[in-house]
Design a protein that fits this description.
576 residues, six-stranded mixed β-sheet
């Protein structure tokens, strides 16, 4: 018998979906924000107990562990990532490639101090040719200053490096020659050209900086988690969830690929239910303890963000689109101007809602649900946690009922109505922005609080069907079961396409051949041979009369042929 373990760490709870034996088993434990490896171990321990096995015996019989974690997201929110040094092309140190803010208002400065930015001489021309060479001594002097000021990693993002990364690569070589890896002080070096091959210096710089900022904490944490599993006799690599909708081993994972990966796993699970029901257009609503995550599937495909915004920074790291609002079970309610407001602040898992009896004294959505009878205080988390209704009543009474002059039950109802109304307003706007002709066939409700609130927040939406699941409380963990090992590669080049232009097809296929070589390398590292790999090709294009980008899925292909070219041309013609 072989088991599959799928674990999703959220802001409040860590969820597990264990497949194997006669029935899948689900587990929910409190997240331990001080050390996320603790709740990972707790979740596996609980899962093993469900099968009546010691942890070591379960892990010896486990064929795959998929894991999504919030450590990267937490690092960005808490601003406790690595201290970085940044090397840009000389002349752009003050206003980094046309920064989004003025001086200290630039959001990039939330992740890197202005005094940790230095310039490099050298210039690449508009066609990728070298116009001015680098000065090795100037690079050494400037990088030494950054390291002396405490830089633990160096990001190099030079002008036009997406056309020719030679100068960035030279700087990396210079740094590694001066600070070999066998020295304790050897800094990690991150090149913008290795993180992104898309144009736009500002976007590539932001992407590289964010990736470097969370890299150290991600690597330290995930390798520790993997080593802990090995110590308990799990012999395979830990697979980490990516925001592209797939998984990969730790050694083949970029830190930024894990951002928002848990909600993406939930949307992948929602897509599985969509297929089972034969639907094409759905909205997924994942109401957990900290937030509500929203996803769209239109015409059977995920929405893809080519330039998502992370912590106020637009980046060019494509990921499946997820929108989040501060509306979860732990969202804190307060009385403001005679009204109830809910969120976005959350009580999290520690201290958590007042009814958790862990020291929390602020009223939350969960406290209101308990007072209104939607939650059984003796059977929370399957009876593992007994909720304290008196503490919930005290918190709602003190902060809501007394200030507003209403009963505790009325105050609890106001909290529920407010949070449901907030979600409904957001969903209404989301549907409106999809166009006048688009309507969801169903809303999928999951997460620990989703099925409790879905009837409230969908009441005034143009949707006739709500779908929930027996696995709703651990739905993102369930979604992990549906994720394959995936590596994505992309490049941005403007190529005019018309029928019969074989030379353009050849140019595109030259890029694709490089992608195939990288894919064979990465999948070999995952343990797969060439015959076990499937390729999937997507193109983004614009018609001559409409500059709006259109995503064209060309299906299972590893090169562009005349057939795919005609399909692309037909799709783009529809935009005219």
């Amino acid at each position: 018998m072989s088991f599959s373990i799928n674990i999703d760490t959220g802001g409040t709870f860590t969820d597990g979906f264990f497949a194997g034996g006669a029935e899948p088993q689900t587990v929910k434990v409190l997240t331990t924000p001080h050390d996320l490896t603790v709740c990972l171990a707790d979740c596996i321990k609980e899962g093993a107990a469900r099968f009546g096995l010691p942890v070591e015996e379960l892990l010896k019989k486990t064929g795959i562990i998929r894991y999504s974690t919030t450590i990267g997201t937490n690092t960005i929110i808490q601003r406790n990532g690595s201290k970085l040094g940044l090397v840009v092309t000389a002349g752009f140190e003050e206003n980094i490639y046309g920064g989004a803010g003025e001086g200290a208002d630039d959001p990039l400065y939330h992740f890197i101090s202005p005094d940790m930015i230095t310039g490099a001489t050298g210039q690449i021309g508009p066609t990728g040719q070298e116009v001015e060479p680098l000065s090795k001594q100037a690079v050494l002097d400037n990088v030494q200053k950054l390291i002396d000021q405490g830089a633990r990693a160096i990001v190099v993002s030079l002008y036009r490096s997406y056309l020719n990364p030679a100068h960035e690569q030279q700087i990396k070589t210079i740094i590694k020659e001066e600070f070999p890896r066998f020295y304790l002080g050897s800094p990690n070096v991150f090149l913008a050209s290795e993180v992104s091959d898309w144009p736009g210096e500002r976007l590539r710089t932001s992407t590289a900086v964010l990736n470097a900022y969370i890299h150290r904490s991600m690597a330290r944490y995930l390798y520790k988690a993997e080593e802990d599993l090995r110590q308990r006799f799990f012999s395979r690599p830990l697979l980490v969830v990516h925001n592209s909708g797939g998984v990969a081993r730790v050694a083949k994972t970029r830190a930024l690929s894990t951002y928002n990966s848990g909600p993406v796993a939930g949307l992948v699970g929602a897509n599985r239910l969509r297929q089972m029901y034969g639907l094409q257009n759905i909205i997924s609503t994942d109401m957990g303890g900290t937030s509500l995550d929203l996803g769209l599937i239109r015409d059977g495909s995920f929405n893809l963000e080519l330039q998502p915004v992370v912590a106020g920074l637009p980046i060019n790291h494509a990921m499946i689109e997820i929108k989040a609002i501060g509306a979860g079970g732990g969202s804190i309610a307060r009385a403001v101007g005679g009204q109830v407001e809910v969120g976005p602040a959350s009580a999290g898992s520690l201290p958590g809602p007042a009814c958790f009896d862990l020291g929390g004294d602020k009223p939350t959505v969960t406290d209101a649900d308990l007072i209104l009878g939607f939650i059984d205080p003796g059977y929370f988390l399957g009876g593992r946690i007994k909720l304290n209704r008196e503490q919930a009543v005290e918190a709602v009474s003190k902060h809501i009922a007394v200030p507003l002059g209403v009963s505790v039950e009325e105050a609890a109802a106001m909290i529920k109505q407010k949070v449901d109304g907030n979600i409904a307003d957001y969903l209404t706007e989301l549907i409106k922005n999809c166009g006048a002709d688009w309507r969801p066939e169903a809303v999928l409700a999951y997460g620990g609080a989703g099925p409790t609130h879905c009837c409230g927040y969908t009441a005034r939406l143009p949707v006739k069907k709500i779908i929930t699941s027996p696995y709703s409380p651990v739905f993102s963990a369930f979604g992990l079961c549906n994720m394959d090992v995936v590596h994505k590669y992309s490049i941005s080049r403007e190529i005019a396409i018309s029928s019969g232009c074989e030379e353009k097809i050849e140019a595109v296929n030259n890029f694709l051949e490089k992608f195939k070589a990288a894919a064979y390398r990465d999948m070999r590292g995952e343990g797969f041979g060439p015959g076990e790999i499937n390729f999937h090709l997507e193109v983004f294009g614009r018609s001559s009369s409409n500059m709006e980008e259109e995503r064209v899925l060309l299906g299972d292909a590893d090169k562009l042929s005349a057939k795919e070219l005609d399909l692309l041309g037909c799709k783009l013609a529809l935009l005219s």
